C-alpha cells in the first residue's frame, strides 16, 4: 500500500469510482499447480468417458472423439465463462481470471487466451509461456497478453481482529503515521503471538522503566486510544 | 477527524448489506443487480475505502473494505451477454464483417494455400512420381485403396449410420484442432501459419493430382467437392487470423506491440470461432452427405460449387454491406480506454508520501 515501488505481486488499478484497487497477481508456481490439477481432471474425464462409450461401437466412438475435442480446446473456456473465471484447478488454488481492468472475463477474451495455449506451449513444454510470465511483473503468458486478461488471487475474507479491551491512553508526544500504524497492528496481532514474543516486541519501543508484562498492556492502551475504542471501567 | 471506532459504527450497516449482496452466489444472472441499491451502496463503500486509507485506519479494516470494493467492481462491471441472441447476431453479421475487414489477409492466405494446392495438383497430375517426395509410400497406398473405384475401398459403398457418426466425431476433432493450431502458431511472426498453410496445400494437392492421374479422379472429386468449400475456407480463414497475429507483432503501427495485439483480439476470436463453425458444417457434410452413394457426379460438383459461391457472397457482399453500416454508426462513438495507474501517481493510495512531508498533520487525535 506504500507508494514506494516494491517487488511484489500487487498491480495497482484505478476504478471509475476513483479508488485504487490492488489486484494480487498469481505467479508461475500457483498457476502451474492449477494447470496440473486441471490436467488431472481432464485426463480423468477422458478415461471415464472412453470406458463408458467404448460399449457403444461406432456411435460411442464418434461421441468420444467429440468429447475429447471439447475437453481439449473448450474445457477452460466453458469453466471461465460459467464459473466466474475459475476452472476447477484455479478454484482449488484460489485463483480466478479477470480482464485487465479487473472486470469479469468476456467470451472472446476467454476464447483467445485459451486458443493461444498452443503458442505458449511452443517450442516445447510451455517454454514460451514460462519465459513470458517470468519476464513480466504482471506475470501474463502470451495468451493473456493478446486477450488482455490477468490471473489473480481471489480476495480472501479475513476475520476482523479484535483489539484487546484496554483503557485508552494518549502518547506523551505526537506519533507519526508509521508509528501509529505499527502500534495498532501490534495490538491487533497480539493475541496471535505468544506472551514472550509480545514482550520481546514491546521492549523495543516501550519505556525501559516498566516491568515487561506492563509494557505490552501499555502499548495496547495506546492503540486503543489511537483507534478510539472506549472500554467500560473494570 | 473521526476515530476509527466511530467510523466503523457509522457505516457498519452499509458494509453488512453490501457483503450480503456480494455473498449471494449469483449465477451469471447476477442477483446483485436485482438488488436495486447495489450500485449506490458500492460507490459509497468506494468512498469509505478511500477515506479509511487516507486516514490510516488499521490494516484489517482497510483490507476488509478493499475486498468489498474488488468484488463489487467485478460484479458491477460484469458483462453478461445473452448467449443465444449473440450467436444469431454472430452468424448473421459479426463473422461476415470480420471476414470483410480482413479481406486482404484472407486473400494472401488463399494464395498461399490454394496456390500451393493447385500447383502441386497439376504437377502430380503430369509427374506422378513427385508424390513420393511429398508423402510416404504407405500413405499413398492407403489413399489409393480408399478411393478405389471398384467398390472394394471404404468409400462409395454403403456405410451404416454408426460409422457416419464416428467419422463426424473424427473430422471435428482432427480438423478443428488443425485449424486452431494454424491460428495459434501465427504468434511467431506469422511463420507458423504460413508453414502449416503451405504443407497442407502441398499434401492435399499431391493426393488429388496423383489420384486424378491414376484414374480415380472421379471418385475422389465427387467425394470431396461437397465439403471442400467449408473445410478449405476455414483453414484459409484461420491462416489469415494467424497472419494477423504475426503482423500485429511485426508491424504494430503507432501502438505498442502488446496494445496492437489487444486491439485485434476481438476480431481474431471472431475469425477463429467462425472457422470452427464452418468446420463443424464441413464435418456434417463430409460424414452424412459426401459418403452417400447414388448421386450423379455432375450434381455433386454443383453442390460443391454452391458452397464456394455462398462463402464468397457471405464475405464479399453480405460482409461488405454490414461493414459499411457499422463503420457509419461507429463514427460518433469515442472510445476512452481506462489507463493503468502507475504505482506512485496522484491517487488516494498516497498517504505514505504525504506523511513524510508533514508528519504531524496526520494525527488520529486532536493533539
Tell the overall outline of chain B: elongated
Computed Rg of chain B: 30 Å
What profile does the largest beta sheet of chain B have?
none
Oligomer: heterodimer
Mean pLDDT of chain B: 82
Q: What low-confidence regions of chain B span 5 or more consecutive residues with pLDDT below 50?
A: 27-32, 336-367
Helix tally of chain B equals: 13
* Main β-sheet description of chain A: 2 strands, antiparallel
- The secondary-structure class of chain B comes to mainly alpha
Q: Can you give the helix content of chain A as a percent range?
A: 40-55%
SSE inventory with pairings:
The complex is a heterodimer of chains A (234) and B (367).
Chain A: E1 10-14, E2 20-24, H1 28-53, H2 57-73, H3 75-82, H4 88-93, E3 95-99, H5 107-115, H6 117-121, H7 127-135, H8 142-147, E4 149-153, H9 177-189, H10 195-205, H11 212-227
Antiparallel strand pairs in A: 1-2, 3-4
Helix pairs in contact in A: 1-2, 3-5, 9-11, 10-11
Chain B: H1 4-23, H2 31-34, H3 38-54, H4 59-76, H5 83-101, H6 103-126, H7 137-146, H8 161-184, H9 191-213, H10 217-250, H11 257-290, H12 297-330, H13 351-357
Helix pairs in contact in B: 1-3, 1-4, 3-4, 5-11, 5-12, 6-9, 6-10, 8-9, 8-10, 8-11, 9-10, 10-11, 10-12
